[in-house]
Amino acid sequence: MLKNSILAFGGNADSPVGTPRETLNFALKSLEGHDIFPLKVSRPYVNPAYPRGSGPDFVNAVAVIQSRLDPVSLLHVLHEIEAECGRVREKRWGPRTLDIDLIACGDIVQPDIKGYQAWRDMSPEDQQCKSPSELILPHPRIQDRAFVLVPMAEVAPEWIHPVSGLSVVQMLDNLSEIDRNEVVPL
What we know:
186 residues
């Protein structure tokens, strides 16, 4: 059965296929070779690296996609595309050629509410040095990241967070105006 998912794309370093914007376009086109079909794709945005000062500005976009893949298999394909674009996982939140985050798969909460909440509530210091050994859905920090929510509001404003019950627009409104204004169309 086909399922809708939301992907966030970002990069701030040149890759073997080109600039960050060219790399994002390449990654989007690569999805179809894996039976992953973009339904809606935001325009590209530019914003400061996260955390601030950790590298060059990022180019970001969000896509609503359709696929028959389960979340873990989908993530595996996304990691293959990242590797094809020269992604090397050296430093958490460091510069990268391509990052594709699986933001949500419908209303799936994975591994469970308690596991999700543990990652959502983790301190920024722990977030920087720890990474989960399993897929966490929805992405545990979506509500904190304007660079995901701004383009997501363009393509999936009606999506409702399955744990908080907030819409994309409500989560975006909860962020500071400074954070929202740092994400600008490219």
